[in-house]
Amino acid sequence: MKRREFLIGAAAGTAVLASPAIVRAQDVRVHQMLPAQATIPAKAIEPWVKRVEEASGGRLKFELYPAMQLGGAPGDLFDQAKDGVVDLIWTVLGYTPGRFPKSEVFELPFMVTKAEPTSVAFQNYVEANALNEFDGVKLICVHGHGPGLFHTKDPVTKLEDLKGMKIRGGSRIISDMLARLGAEPIGMPVPQVPEALSTGVINGTTIPWEVTPSLKVAELVKNHTGFSGSHGLYTQTFAFTMNLDRYNGLPDDLKAVIDANSGIETAREFGRVMDAGDAVGLKIATDAGNNIIQLDEAETARWKEAAQPTIDQWFADMQAAGTDGKALYDAAKATIEAEGV
Prior knowledge:
It is built from 13 helices and eleven strands. The chain is of the alpha/beta class.
């Protein structure tokens, strides 16, 4: 039996594979949903793996499985790490709606700016306010992407242009916002975007610039709409996590290596990579002669007003769950402002 087939079969049938008695200490499997050449896999996860391998003196050896090669759907990734089906995962928190309600605050409209300060702010916020949402895993880091914007077949130059468009949303918060802005939100993980654009299932998508090259979005649509000021329409939130038993089963010195490569500076690096990826994606679209639209301050203010009910609804949802959403929102804003943005 081929190794990949064995891993897939074992992942589907049992969690025994996660036992330290079965998996050699140096074999650590990393599973995520994007192609290996995408920004975070190539520019953040691979360098992280190399640093940790070197710091461990070769006693930790990582095996990278991109594009869901070990089976399952992107929404399964968090539980794959938590349950020990795999050892580490990188995922979008919004792919499991309602699972991370306190963390959702960073997805609210016009909250965030560049990916690096957003990621540092998000890591600080989670450590202070939402760490319980990651019980059962070893949290390596959380992060966000850069300013979210529209990539559409027809140009969006004002709020009314969005009315009736089928637009991909990557989380329940983003889909709620899209509906209030007049679009018809279509929820789907980002790997499904190219086919959905090609077949007309969607008329456009909300993603940051950095992911457009790996999805070839600048070839599939010719219009890209962003906003004035430093804040993007939204961000998605991400987590890089490790199976807790796998981590606890390591010798103390190897756990220290993982610890030294977790937290704020790792979040900062993942965000920095996202920002660099944004520049690459924008250049590709510009070089292709695509229509790059930036809404002016007055038009951006109209979108902010139209999106405000999404924030109000999140406050109401959190209150119904017995949580002070306004306090969390203020805490999130404070962590962002502490980064000077």
